[in-house]
Specification:
Elements (H helix, E strand, L loop, with lengths): L3 E3 L6 E3 L20 H10 L12 E4 L8 E5 L2 E7 L11 E5 L4 E7 L2 E8 L12 E5 L2 E7 L14 H12 L4 E5 L2 H15 L2 E4 H9 L3 H8 L1 H15 L5 E4 L21 E7 L3 E5 L13 H15 L10 E5 L7 H18 L3 H10 L26
Helix pairs in contact: 2-8, 3-8, 4-6, 5-6
Pfam family, one: CS
GO cellular component, one term: cytosol
Protein name: CS domain-containing protein
Length: 392
C-alpha cells in the first residue's frame, strides 16, 4: 500500500505506508495563557518577520522524531512552542514560518545552516495563514496561529491517529459507525481498530449471527441460502440501530445484506463507511465535491476516484448509500490502523461540513428509523405515504 489520499469535504491527505504518518512527536503538555497582553505585544512586533536565505547556506533537517514541542488551544487561536536548545538564534528575523491552510513548515538560520525545526503536511484543521505570528521567548520559538473554526477544539497541532481519536467525542457525539464492504475480514479488522481508538463498543454481525444460529455462516449459507442470511443480518442491524458509541462491522459478499440497496433503512442511524478494494486508496464523501491538487494523484488513483464516483452513482448497489467511500489498494492486516485513521479523518471533515449531522442522526433514531434519510419527515410519517410530506 503505497499511499493514501482522502478527499471528503474538499480536503486532501497523503499518508505514507505507516500507522503514524506525522514525523513530529506528540505534545508535551498544555500551556497556560498568562501575560496575554505581553504575548500579543511581542507577537505583533514580529508579525511580518521573515528571512531570506542565501544560496550558500546548507540545509539541515532536525531529527523530528526526538524533538518535543508544547501546544495549547486558546479557542480562536492556537499556540505552538518549540525549544531552540543551544542553537544560536537571537532574533525572529532568522526564523521562516511557511503556513498554509492545512500545512506548516518552520525553518531557522543558525551557524551557517538552514534548520528545519518542524514540518507537517496535515494540521488538525484549517488555519488563517495571513494571521500567523511568531517571536522568540527566551529559549523557545513561539508560533501563534488563528483557527478558521473557533468552535473546534484542537487536541494537537497536527492530524494524527492520536489527535483524531482524542477529538472524536466532540465531533461524533456518540453516533455509531457502520463498516460495510465486500470483505468481512477487512470490515471486522478496521471496525475493531476504530472501536479501540474511539473507546466505542466493537460489534460484528458475523459473530452475532453465528452465536444465534450456532453454526458458521458458510454452513448456514449451504443449508438455507443467501436470502436467509440477508434477512437475519437485517434483523440484527435493526436491533443495533438504537445503540450509541458502537462500531459495527457488517458481512461482506456474497451474503451481506448491505450490498442490497433496500436493506439500508437502519444503517442511516449511524455514519457508514464503505471499504472497497481497487488500484489506490481514496476516501470520498459521496455528497461533497472532489478536488485533486497537482502532483498528489497518480494514474491509478485517478482511475480509482473515477470508479468510486461511478459506483456512488449506481443506485442499484447498496454500498453506494455509504457516506464515506474508502478504496483500498490491496490489504495487509497490519495496515488496519492506517485505514482506520483515514476513516476518522474523513468522518471529521464530513461532520465539520455539516455540524448538525450527529443531531439529525439522533432524530432519525427517535422517529423510528423509517427510511426517510436524509429528508426526515414529521412524526407520524410512513413510507407508504410517499414524499408529499414536508421535510424536517
Amino acid at each position: 500500500m503505497a499511499s493514501l489520499v482522502c478527499t471528503p469535504t474538499c480536503f486532501n491527505l497523503l499518508f505514507s505506508n505507516t500507522t503514524n504518518p506525522n514525523p513530529i512527536s506528540r505534545k508535551t503538555g498544555s500551556l497556560s495563557w498568562k501575560n496575554h497582553a505581553l504575548h500579543h505585544k511581542l507577537a505583533l512586533s514580529n508579525r511580518f518577520s521573515s528571512v531570506s536565505f542565501s544560496s550558500n547556506l546548507s540545509t539541515v533537517s532536525v531529527n523530528n522524531n526526538t524533538r518535543e514541542y508544547e501546544f495549547s488551544d486558546g479557542a480562536a487561536e492556537i499556540e505552538l512552542r518549540l525549544p531552540l536548545g543551544n542553537q544560536e538564534i537571537q532574533n525572529s528575523k532568522y526564523i521562516s514560518v511557511d503556513a498554509e491552510e492545512t500545512s506548516l513548515i518552520i525553518r531557522a538560520r543558525a551557524s551557517g545552516s538552514l534548520l528545519t525545526l518542524m514540518e507537517t503536511s496535515q494540521l488538525y484543521d484549517k488555519i488563517k495563514p495571513a494571521e500567523t505570528i511568531w517571536y522568540i521567548d527566551e529559549d523557545q520559538l513561539v508560533i501563534n496561529l488563528k483557527k478558521q473554526d473557533s468552535d473546534l477544539n484542537w487536541p494537537d497541532i497536527m492530524e494524527s491517529w492520536e489527535s483524531l481519536t482524542a477529538g472524536a467525542p466532540q465531533i461524533l457525539k456518540g453516533t455509531s459507525v457502520y463498516i460495510v464492504g465486500d470483505s468481512t475480514e477487512i470490515n471486522e479488522k478496521v471496525a475493531r481498530e476504530l472501536a479501540v481508538g474511539l473507546g466505542y463498543t466493537p460489534l460484528n454481525t458475523r459473530e452475532l449471527l453465528e452465536t444465534f444460529a450456532k453454526q458458521p455462516i458458510d454452513s448456514w449459507l449451504v443449508e438455507e441460502g443467501i436470502d436467509s442470511i440477508v434477512e437475519a443480518e437485517s434483523s440484527v442491524l435493526e436491533s443495533l440501530s438504537s445503540h450509541i458509541r458502537a462500531v459495527v462491522a457488517t458481512l461482506g459478499t456474497p451474503y451481506g445484506a448491505m450490498a442490497r440497496a433496500d436493506k439500508w433503512q437502519h444503517l442511516y442511524s449511524g455514519f457508514s463507511i464503505w471499504l472497497s478494494q481497487s488500484g489506490a486508496i481514496v476516501c470520498i464523501s459521496r455528497s461533497i465535491n472532489l478536488i485533486s491538487p497537482p502532483g498528489q494523484y497518480n494514474a491509478d488513483e485517478g482511475l480509482a476516484k473515477e470508479e468510486a464516483q461511478r459506483q456512488i452513482r449506481d443506485a442499484t448497489k447498496g454500498y453506494a448509500n455509504a457516506e464515506v467511500v474508502i478504496k483500498l489498494a490491496g490489504w495487509l492486516p497490519n495496515e488496519s490502523q492506517t485505514v482506520a485513521q483515514a476513516c476518522l479523518s474523513a468522518l471529521k471533515r464530513l461532520v465539520l461540513s455539516d455540524k448538525n449531522l450527529p443531531g439529525k442522526k439522533s432524530l432519525y433514531i427517535r422517529l423510528g428509523c423509517r427510511g426517510d434519510w436524509p429528508n426526515i419527515k414529521p412524526p407520524g410519517w410512513h413510507p407508504a405515504a410517499g414524499d408529499d410530506t414536508s421535510e424536517t
